[in-house]
Amino acid sequence: MIYIIWLTLLVLFIFAYISPQIPIWLPIAVYIIVVIIRAKEKIGNYWDWKKKSKRDEDSKLEETLSDLANRGVARGGIRIREERKMKEDFKYERRKRKRQFENELINCLFLQ
Predict the structure, then answer these.
(1) What is the pTM of this model?
(2) What is the average per-residue pLDDT within 17-44?
């Protein structure tokens, strides 16, 4: 798919350069449209993942706290440590996914 897009853009640029009938802005407009479509898809996927991650964090935190309450250690430092550890894990996952998202956006510019 990517090769077809690149080939189409290359052909449009060559024809726009050779022929005065095809304006130079046409291949540029096609490129911009393709980049916008791909970027919109990546942004949508990232926001969906972010919502799901927050939901997962809340449910896992609730599950862990109820498990600790069932064991009788709901109060004190154990609960706080477990909660902090879990939040740090999810925070790390979000940072990792955000870096991946930024790389995906940059790759959109190169139509990869």
Answers:
(1) 0.75
(2) 89
